[in-house]
Specification:
The structure is a homodimer of 301-residue chains.
Chain A (H helix, E strand, L loop, with lengths): L1 H4 L11 E3 L6 E10 L11 H17 L4 E11 L7 H15 L2 E9 L4 E10 L13 E5 L4 H10 L6 H8 L5 H9 L4 E4 L4 H12 L2 E5 L11 H6 L6 E5 L5 H8 L3 E8 L8 E5 L5 E2 L13
Parallel strand pairs in A: 3-4, 8-11
Antiparallel strand pairs in A: 2-5, 3-5, 6-9, 6-10, 7-9, 8-10, 11-12
Helix pairs in contact in A: 2-3, 2-6, 4-5, 6-9
Chain lengths: 301, 301
């Protein structure tokens, strides 16, 4: 594995890895598990894609803090029928880390009856951006275009093969590290990655920030073929949702990071005594009911 | 879970946790997975013990670097028949962290078909101690007394219930954080925790340090009923093995940390062209053949 990873691996082989956090920066850490039969089915993805996707899901949490990756440790429970695929899985992990920077510094391999990958990622930022800072007057932005993973899942679930672009969005998501750092440097007050679905993740921002978030359905960027409601419900997008000043230069963001940034709504103050909420409006200004949230114990597969 | 953990949990609820590493210290990180049917069987341990043991296994890697714990993140794949035990599992995780210090700062819960806990631990030390620094002339020391986990496993494997003290060594090991820091402060040149078995872990030190390690079988501290050969083979002890100067004050270590420290052998130089090795000698000075090592893909259960 170390040979396959080459220079993306570093210092693997002691009880623990030793790292230095850049002076003046804070450490950011997150852990994320991907379980066969829960997060993916074997027939859907190649082993390299399984490794890439599990790793990107974790790295996305660093992007969502405006942090840059320093190090990744992985734990894998590997059933006998996956052991031959371990090199390809490891390639996927290594490629995903190489895509955003940082090093693989340790891991733990054990037997198991289902493939389970747990990626823990460490990053750093001078001032990490949480979900809790959205302020009335901010604009809501999202990176990329949404709906692909949901479209891919639906097709797989009925036993067919998704369209290549939808499949790619599910199998090879990108951790938006550059966009997260760009947003952090350009006044982002709140950041979160779209893992539960845009509507559910926006609700997390509203609750953490104590605000009301108004989402304009017609402005939500959708992949070809996806409806705006698909885009609201599609989870595991690993795009970033941000609250930031209204004057953020979205074209400059795209030029600097290669990632499209779209204004999709605004943050407003809560009425006295009101609970934080998300209000979705259609093009005519009518409220649209939100789909139910994602249950972490439910099986996507 | 947060309510159960009380003040041992901190800052859980954003995409990632934010931490500060004490100035002048280096960050130490390790990850460790515990899988039902691989590392334990359900009938052997209470849910709280499963959580404790999985967490201690990870924290032990910090002890083995001479580091003190800062933070723990956990990922759990939880099958339906374990969901009711989740609070007790979480108690075990929380109690193990409380035992050595540090905070639980994040986690990820998913469904699964077998219980799998992955604990990632972060700690810090001014000068972490690796396995690679053992020098000819050093004495080898081990904490505690060995053999209990192997004795417990053997009894469980034939369907009986182990003696309470053996069971306790398997179910409630302690991460030797205080002893690891003490050894680091008193000249330890190499540290490793006994997870694969004393003989196998000593071989890791010999290989990493490029030395020969001589182990005196009669000096290996054994739990009641265990033979020295049991003690050599017993894995998942989570005691510490250290190379350090011969004049380490073992009584003072016990007074300062509450943990017994026993000299068990010495480090010698390799002959020119010789490979690093472990030589085990009985009381009469005869070489004893080493038992075979631990296979990470084999099932203990």
């Amino acid at each position: 594995m170390l040979a396959r990873w080459g220079d993306v691996a570093r210092g693997v082989g002691d009880d623990a890895a030793v790292l230095d956090v850049p002076a003046g920066e804070r450490l950011v850490v997150s852990t994320d598990a991907s379980v066969e039969g829960v997060h993916f089915r074997r027939g859907w993805l190649t082993p390299a894609e399984v490794g890439w996707r599990a790793t990107t899901a974790a790295l996305s949490d660093l992007a969502a803090m405006g942090a840059r990756p320093l190090a990744v440790v992985w734990a894998a429970a590997v059933p006998p029928d996956w052991q031959a695929d371990l090199p390809a899985l490891a390639d996927g992990v290594g490629d995903a880390v190489r895509d955003v920077g940082g090093h693989i510094v340790g891991g733990d391999l054990t037997a198991g009856t289902e493939l389970s990958l747990t990626l823990t990622v460490l990053g750093s930022a001078r001032a990490p951006v949480t979900r809790a800072g959205a302020r009335p007057g901010d604009t809501l932005y999202v990176t990329g275009a949404l709906g692909g993973p949901l479209r891919a899942l639906r097709v797989w679930q009925r036993g067919a093969e998704p369209a290549p672009l939808d499949r790619e969005r599910f199998a090879r998501p990108r951790a938006r590290v550059a966009a997260g750092r760009w947003l952090s440097a350009h006044g982002a007050t709140a950041l979160i990655d779209v893992s539960d679905g845009l509507a559910a993740d926006l609700a997390h921002v509203a609750a953490a920030s104590g605000v009301r978030c108004e989402l304009h359905l017609a402005q939500v960027p959708c992949v070809a073929g996806a409806t705006p409601l698909d885009a609201l419900q599609s989870g595991e997008e690993y795009e970033l949702l941000s609250a930031a000043p209204p004057d953020v230069d979205v074209l400059r963001c795209e030029r600097d990071t290669g990632v499209r940034l779209t204004p999709i709504g605004r943050v407003t103050a809560l009425d006295p005594g009101a609970e934080p909420e998300v209000v979705v409006r259609d093009a005519a200004g009518r409220r649209v009911d939100l789909p139910p949230g994602h249950d972490h114990f439910s099986r996507a597969c």
